[in-house]
Amino acid sequence: MPSPRIGVVGATGAVGKVTLGLLAERGYDDVRAFASARSAGSRVELGGEALVVEEATPEALSAGDLDLCLFSIGTSGSRELVPHAVRGGAIVVDKSSAYRLADGVPLVVPEVNGARALEHAGIVANPNCCTIPLTCVLEPLEEAARLRRVRVATYQSASGAGVESMERLAGERPDEHDLRADWDFDGVEYEEEEKLRLETRKILELPELPISPTCVRVPVMVGHAEAVWVETEQPLSPDDARSLLESAPSVRVVDGFPSPGQAAQTEDVLVGRIRRDPTEENGLALFLACDNLVKGAALNAIQIAELLLSRAALAA
Amino acid sequence: MPSPRIGVVGATGAVGKVTLGLLAERGYDDVRAFASARSAGSRVELGGEALVVEEATPEALSAGDLDLCLFSIGTSGSRELVPHAVRGGAIVVDKSSAYRLADGVPLVVPEVNGARALEHAGIVANPNCCTIPLTCVLEPLEEAARLRRVRVATYQSASGAGVESMERLAGERPDEHDLRADWDFDGVEYEEEEKLRLETRKILELPELPISPTCVRVPVMVGHAEAVWVETEQPLSPDDARSLLESAPSVRVVDGFPSPGQAAQTEDVLVGRIRRDPTEENGLALFLACDNLVKGAALNAIQIAELLLSRAALAA
User: Fold this and answer.
1) Quick check: A257 and B180 CB within 8 A?
2) Does residue B38 sit in the same domain as residue B157?
3) Is the pTM of this model over 0.95?
4) Which CATH number covers residue A12?
5) pLDDT (tens digit per residue) in B97-121
6) Which domain holds residue B53?
7) How many A-B residue pairs are in contact by the CB < 8 A criterion?
8) Strand ranges (DSSP E) for chain A?
C-alpha cells in the first residue's frame, strides 16, 4: 500500500502540532497541513521538515487528493468543513464534538471499541480528552464485573482549552493561578460534564450507565487527571482490578501517584491508587493521568486512522 | 475583661502570619510572637506594629504570662511544646494533628460543634484545612437528612503545605506545574485522607460515617477546593440543600463556580454547583472553596479562642 495522503486540519493548534509530531515519528511523509486563513502561509514542522500551512477551504479539502483527514479544530469549523473532506473522498477522524453523539458516526477508542470504527460512513469521531483515558480504564472493569455507577472529578490542564489558554497560564503570576470551569454551563452542569457522561456511555455501549462528573480546569500546562469512584455489580478486589488494568492495552499501572507531569509526552494512560472505596460494598477508587494532547487527542486519532488503514490494506 | 494575653506560636509561618493579621483586625493588642530559634529576633507585623519574634522554648511558654496560645507549627513541635504552654496556664488552640484525635481533646469547628470546646482540659484542636470547610457544609445536611455516604476529591493549594511549598510554586516555570500528593502514604491512602475521614467523623459525632477521600495538591497558591458527593438517608432536593446552606453560618452559596481565588482572603466557605448526583436516589453533588489559611486555619482557631473567652467572661 502506498503511503496514505494525510491532511492535518488545525495544524497550528495544540493538538495539530502534536499530531504532526506523531505522524513524523511513525514515518508518514505524505502529509499536508491546513489551518484557518489567518495561519495560511505560516510554517509548521513535520519531523525536521517545514510544511507550509494551507488554508482549510471547502475547495482544498474536497479536491479528492486526500485519503485521510485528521481534524482538530472547533466544533463549528468541523461542522462546516468535515462534509467537504468527506465529499472529496477522505476518511475524516474528527476531534471536535460536532459528530460524536450523531447516529451513524462511530465514536472510537481503539482499545475499547475499535471494531466500531469500521462502521463509518466517512467520519469517525475522536472522543473528549477526558473520555478517552476514562474508557480505557473502565472497559476492563466492565468486562470483569459490570459497572453499576461511576463518579469522576477531573483535573484538566490548560492545553485542553487550546493555545490561548496555555498562553494565559504562561503569562500569569503564580499567585494568580486559580481553578476554573471554562465551559458552557446550562445552570446545572458544564457541557464538558455532559460530554464525559454521554460519550462514555456511547463508547462502552452502556446507554443507561449512571455517571456523575465534576470537571475542573487546573493550572497545569499539559496532562489531565481524574479521581474516579467505580461501583461494580460483581465484587472486584483492588488486586484483581490492578491485574486487569495491568493487562489492558494503553494502560500503565504505577505504584505512586500518577501525575499529569509523569504522563506528559507518553502514550499511556497512567493509573494508580487502586483501592477499595469503603463507602460501598463493591466500590473501588482510583486515580488516572494522561497526556490530553497525545492519547487524549492526537494519538487516539492516529490509532483510529491506522486501524482503518490496516483493514483497508487487508481488504485490498 | 482585660485584653487576653495571646501567644502566636509559629508566627513566621503561612498560618501564623494570617493569625497575626486577623488578631490585629479584631483589636487584640496584647500579642506576642513565637517561633523556632532560627527565626527568633526577626520581626513580624501585628497591624502596623512590628513584633520581635521570641524563641518558642518550654521556659518562655510555661512562664505563666499567657492566657491563650495559638499554635501553628508542625506536629512534632506541638507534641513537644504544647504541654509546656498548658502547664503555664494558657489555653492552647493547636493547628497540628498531634492532638486532634486524642480522647479528651475537643476538635472544634465553632459553627458545627462549638459547645465541645468547653470540655477542654487545656487543649482544643483545630482541624485540618480540608476538614473545616467540609464539616461546615455537611453539618446542615446531616441535621436535615442524615448523611449516609460522602466522597470527596480535593484541590489543595500550595500554602497548605507551608511557606517552602509556596516558594517552590513561585519559582517554577508554568510548564513545570504539576499535581502532587505530598503527604505520607501508607500504601493505600495518604495521611491527609485518613485525617479528613477521622476528623470529619469526630466533629460530626458520626464515628461510622463512610467517607472516601482523594486528596490532591494543585498549583494554586492559596485556597482549597473540594468536589463532594453526598448521599443522605432522607431525600433532599438540591433546592432544599441550597436553602439549608444559605442559612448555615460561615457558608456562602454562590451561583457560579466557587474558585479558590474567589475564596482567598475571605472568611467564608463558598459553596456552589449544588445539584443531584444522578447515580444515587438520595445523592447530591456540590463544590466548595475556602481560604485554607483563614477559615481553614487561623480564623477557625481565633473563633475557637473567642468562644472560650466569651464563656470565661460570662463565668467571671
Assistant:
1) yes
2) no
3) yes
4) 3.40.50.720
5) 999 999 999 999 999 999 999 999 9
6) 6-128+296-315
7) 137
8) 6-9, 31-35, 43-46, 49-52, 54-55, 68-71, 91-94, 123-125, 147-155, 211-214, 224-232, 251-253, 269-276, 283-290
